[in-house]
Amino acid sequence: MRGIVFDIDDTLYCRQDMLVQAAESVIGVKVRDWREFISIFYEKSDINMAALESGEISTRDINGWRYNETFRILGLPFKPEDGCLSADAYLELQSHMFLSDDMKKALDRFASDPEFKLAILTAGESKHQWHKVDMLGLDKWFDRANILVTGDTGFSKPDIRLCRIIEDNLDLKPGELWMIGDNYDKDITGALDSGWHSIWINRRNLPKPERLPDYEVLTDKELTDLLLTDFYKN
Q1: Which domain holds residue 64?
Q2: pLDDT confidence of 48, banded at 50, 70, 90?
């Protein structure tokens, strides 16, 4: 028996294009290097995460701040209100988010196989993350009791207590669990510290860390190819 635990953002679906597109639509300027934009935006995402998860600050406000900080660092023209306007534009784009056909195929296979148990471990404000669960129709593959949003727990990734909750929910031992996520420091470090296996989606092609995951992929296609072939067979 194996348990597969997915992050949501930039794992089950990719949000990077939407983040950049939202910014461009507000400031009216083309982002020259989307990878640099995303890298800065994600670095800022770790700041104030605890306040976001506890509900002290809204997702709109924190995303607005992240956008403005990214604009400032890159020297892009912006007005103070553009950050929150970009956050609003991003939220509108998110209303059209979807899982790829290959990801659906992988989830169909795992959900129908009694040798696997599926779960989600996602960071963020409770209401915002549960809205994504509903928007993406994840109930088709994941029991809601096995979906853990950090905003509901009082813990932040990579706190191993989150992994222990998942273990109890799935009734599985650490060595039987796999974490799939895009954030090495949050997703993969937590898994390694908990004795789990891991698959890292290294979208930004970051340097290899000291502690390696079991698998590293760079794109959505590489992830679903892995899930549908070697990983499933092993």
Answers
A1: 16-94
A2: confident
